[in-house]
């Protein structure tokens, strides 16, 4: 069921549209991530939803009711900021209770809800501490408890983990997902971290230059990108340019590239040039010309890098480079050395055609 709707939302700064007729539907209880590079409009969009920025066009609805003309305190939304935004002179208890006091919640109810919120974020017993006495992860938990204690309709998180170290980030993102699912609250999570978005999201809205490029579940965003930007922004890709030498119809063509030929899924005219992407982990390498019945592309290993669970091979073919990431459980890295001639092999369906039109 659609719960939060953005319809043709526009934001303009100095006569420049930074959010361009953005439309999106988010279901009740869904965790939606806004993912994109700096300056793509994701935080601006979040701030319009929260009411911290005015909408210059379009509308925002929650549960079928327009909220874009309401002040922030009337929208029933909880916000977790990147810098935590805790009051340094207040205890943990008072920081979490702040929103309830503004809403004039009775003292007995206030005490109960604050203690419940602190228990939810695993900070029971920290009520009398001050922010300066807490670690970064604990401060972020306080910020999350403060947002949830008011029982908002929508939870908004603006890059909430960017100030934490890598290990703590992973722990906190798992906690946020656990709490979000337990509470069942509709949530928008803004991040520029691809791994973070892929790991936690029900769906991802990939943004670029004020527009949404693609909205989909994480597996589809990664494996079936719909635009060139999504192909290149999510994960890593090799770009391959080939020439169509035969068109068989039914979305099948024979492609010539790097001195090799392969039938691929694309609809293009004969003699036209076509660009494809392929992810490094989709490429296999072998000392033999054929592998599992598939013909290989002759290449040379220019460099290899041991990366723990996998090894990265930089391959050269006709003055072009390919990157292959091979699991060390699949191929012993000692079998292939720099300077070796090897064959690169992949499934034709793993070639992603470019889609330049957005």
From TrEMBL:
Gene3D superfamilies: 2.40.50.100, P-loop containing nucleotide triphosphate hydrolases. SUPFAM superfamilies: MOP-like, P-loop containing nucleoside triphosphate hydrolases. PROSITE patterns: ABC_TRANSPORTER_1 (PS00211), ABC_TRANSPORTER_2 (PS50893). It holds the Pfam family ABC_tran. Its EC number is 7.6.2.11. Keywords: ATP-binding, Cell membrane, Membrane, Nucleotide-binding, Translocase, Transport. One of its GO terms (molecular function) is ABC-type polyamine transporter activity. It comes from the Bacteria. GO terms for cellular component: ATP-binding cassette (ABC) transporter complex. The keyword Transport applies. It catalyses: a quaternary ammonium(out) + ATP + H2O = a quaternary ammonium(in) + ADP + phosphate + H(+); ATP + H2O + polyamine-[polyamine-binding protein]Side 1 = ADP + phosphate + polyamineSide 2 + [polyamine-binding protein]Side 1. Residues 4-234 form the ABC transporter domain. Coiled coil: none annotated. The complex is composed of two ATP-binding proteins (OpuCA), two transmembrane proteins (OpuCB and OpuCD) and a solute-binding protein (OpuCC). PANTHER family: SPERMIDINE/PUTRESCINE IMPORT ATP-BINDING PROTEIN POTA, SPERMIDINE_PUTRESCINE IMPORT ATP-BINDING PROTEIN POTA. Belongs to the ABC transporter superfamily. Spermidine/putrescine importer (TC 3.A.1.11.1) family. Part of the ABC transporter complex PotABCD involved in spermidine/putrescine import. Responsible for energy coupling to the transport system. This is Spermidine/putrescine import ATP-binding protein PotA. It comes from Bacillus canaveralius. The gene is potA.
């Amino acid at each position: 069921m659609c719960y939060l709707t953005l319809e043709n939302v526009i934001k303009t700064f100095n006569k420049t549209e930074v959010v361009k007729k953005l439309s999106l539907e988010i279901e009740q209880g869904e965790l939606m991530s806004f993912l994109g590079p700096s300056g793509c409009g994701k935080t601006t969009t979040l701030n319009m939803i929260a009411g911290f920025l005015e909408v210059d066009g379009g509308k925002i609805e929650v549960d079928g009711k327009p909220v874009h003309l309401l002040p922030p305190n009337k929208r029933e939304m909880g916000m977790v900021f990147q810098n935590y935004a805790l009051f340094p002179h207040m205890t943990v208890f008072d920081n979490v209770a702040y929103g309830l006091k503004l809403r004039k919640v009775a003292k007995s109810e206030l005490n109960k809800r604050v203690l419940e919120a602190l228990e939810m974020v695993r900070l029971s017993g920290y009520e009398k501490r001050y922010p300066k006495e807490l670690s970064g992860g604990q401060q972020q938990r306080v910020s999350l408890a403060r947002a949830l204690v008011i029982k908002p309709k929508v939870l908004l998180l603006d890059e909430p983990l960017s100030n934490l170290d890598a290990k703590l980030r992973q722990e906190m993102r798992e906690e946020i997902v656990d709490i979000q699912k337990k509470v069942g609250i509709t949530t928008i999570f803004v991040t520029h971290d691809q791994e973070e978005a892929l790991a936690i999201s029900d769906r991802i809205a990939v943004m670029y230059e004020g527009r949404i490029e693609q909205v989909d579940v994480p597996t589809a965003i990664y494996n079936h990108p719909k635009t060139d930007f999504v192909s290149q922004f999510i994960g890593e890709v090799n770009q391959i340019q080939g020439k169509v030498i035969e068109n068989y119809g039914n979305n099948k063509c024979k492609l010539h590239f790097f001195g090799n030929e392969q039938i691929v899924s694309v609809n293009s005219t004969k003699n036209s040039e076509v660009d494809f992407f392929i992810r490094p982990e989709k490429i296999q390498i072998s000392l033999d010309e054929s592998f599992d019945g598939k013909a290989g592309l002759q290449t040379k290993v220019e460099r290899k890098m041991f990366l723990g669970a996998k090894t990265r091979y930089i391959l050269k073919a006709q003055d072009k480079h390919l990157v292959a990431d091979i699991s060390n459980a699949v191929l012993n890295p000692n079998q292939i050395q720099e300077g070796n001639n090897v064959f690169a092999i992949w499934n034709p369906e793993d070639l992603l055609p470019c889609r330049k039109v957005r």
